[in-house]
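2024-03-11 09:14:02 DEBUG pipeline.ingest accepted 1 chain
2024-03-11 09:14:02 DEBUG pipeline.ingest length=240
2024-03-11 09:14:03 DEBUG pipeline.predict start
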Amino acid sequence: MYSQQHRSISTIQSHTQNIHDANHCLDLIIGPHDLVDFNQYEPLDFSFNGSQIGRMIIGDLTYGKDVIFKTHTHENMNHFCITRPKNGRPLFKKDGQTFYACYDQASIVSPEDKFELIIDKDCVQTFISFSKTFVEKILSDLISQPVTEPLVFQNVMDQNNPKIKAWWDLIDSIKNFTNNFTNTSFFQEMRSDFEYIIVKSLLLSQPNNYSDLIYKNTLDYPDFFTRLLEFIQKKYTSKN
C-alpha cells in the first residue's frame, strides 16, 4: 500500500508483499525500472518509510528478499538516486564494472545511468532521490549557463572525501531539524531553501562531468560546507 499526506512534509509509506505494488512505489520515487524476483516461492516483504520534502524524497528502503533492481534500456529514470546501506552490501553493476555499496561508500546514480543493483533480503538502505529537472535547474544556476549535456555523477560517494562527509552531516542536521520543528507554516516557507542547499551541496561535493565548470564559477567552494554546517547546527541547537 502506498500513501501520501499532502502537507509541508509529505509522508510516504509502502509495505507490501506484492511485487506490482512495490514497483508502483518505486516508479513514483525513482522512475522507470524493472524489479527482478530471484525466487518466486519466497515472499517479498517490501517496505519504504520516508518523507517527501518538495522535490526531495528520503527514507528507509527494504525488500525482505533477494532481488535485482534494473534500469530500462531505452527509458531513463526521472530522479537522481542515492543508496546508503545501513545493513548489507548491495552489488552495483554498470558498464562491466562492479562495486559493493556500503555505509561509507554509498552509490549515486543519474537518470541516464544503465545499471543493475543486486540486493539481498537483509539489506536496509537509506534512500534519497531528487527530481532531475530540479537538480538541473540548480546546476544551471551554478554554472551560469544552460545544461546542454546530461549531468552524470561519479557513482561512488566516498566518505573519506571530507566534502562527502560534510554533505551527510548536512542531511542529518536537516532531518533532525524537520523532525523536531513544529512550526509547519515556517517550514513551508523554508522548504525550498533546504532543498536548494542540499542539492547545491551535492553538486559541489560529488565529482561529476560538470565539476570543472562548477569550480570555475564557485570561488568559495572549499569553505562552503564548513560555513553551512556551522550555521545549521547553531540554529538547530538553539531550538532545543
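2024-03-11 09:14:41 DEBUG pipeline.report The chain is about 35% helix and 30% strand.
2024-03-11 09:14:41 DEBUG pipeline.predict end
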